[in-house]
Amino acid sequence: AVQKAMMQTDVAKYEHHNLEFLSGGEQQRVFIAQALAQQAELLLLDEHTAALDPKTSLKIMEITEKIVKERSLTTIMITHNLKQAIKTGNRLIMMHRGKVLIDVKGEEKSKLTTEKLMNLFKEASFNEDLGDRSLLA
């Protein structure tokens, strides 16, 4: 399981390296490999592309999407990158102050843009502040 995870994330070459000497993107791939080696049924990704340059972030997302698809893993990804949130996965849940404000999937999600998502968020958070839950997802 460890060797397979290392091959899938392209980190086998770092097997004998100290983690602290790897780049941020290399470290993220190692962390994903560690999670995969445990053969969990659920993958939790908390800002796993944050603080990475755009090229490395894209590579990490490609690796993640490939692994999730190959292993049919249920995955929860937390991100503040709206484009990434819209593009990735089959469901988008947006929270504010610990409450779900937006929950979209399917065709509705496929039609989202960052501008539409921000407008939905503004409307939902405004209504939440007023105590009106009727417009929430």
Explain this structure.
- The protein is elongated, with a radius of gyration of 17 Å.
- The model has no long low-confidence stretch (mean pLDDT 89).
- Helix 3 links the parallel strand 1 and strand 2.
- With 137 residues, the chain is an alpha+beta fold.
- The strands form 2 sheets. A two-stranded parallel sheet has the order 1-2. Strands 3-4 form a two-stranded antiparallel ribbon.
- 49% of the residues lie in helices and 17% in strands.
What is the overall silhouette? elongated
The radius of gyration is: 17 Å
Stretches where pLDDT is under 50 for at least 5 consecutive residues are: none
What's the tally of helices?
6
pLDDT averaged residue by residue: 89
H and E string: HHEHEHEEHH
Total strand segments: 4
Q: Strand sequence of the main sheet, in spatial order? A: 1-2
Largest sheet: 2 strands, parallel
Query: What is the strand content?
Result: 15-25%
Alpha-carbon distance between the two ends: 40 Å
Helices and strands: which structural class? Answer: alpha+beta
Q: Considering DSSP H and I runs of 4 or more, what fraction of the residues is helical? A: 40-55%
Protein traits:
137 residues, alpha+beta, two-stranded parallel sheet, two-stranded antiparallel ribbon, 4 strands, 49% helix, elongated
List the helices and strands and how they pair.
Elements lengths: L1 H7 L15 H14 L4 E5 L7 H18 L2 E5 L3 H6 L3 E6 L2 E7 H5 L3 H17 L7
Helix pairs in contact: 1-2, 2-3
Structure summary:
By secondary structure, the protein is α+β, with helices and mostly antiparallel strands.
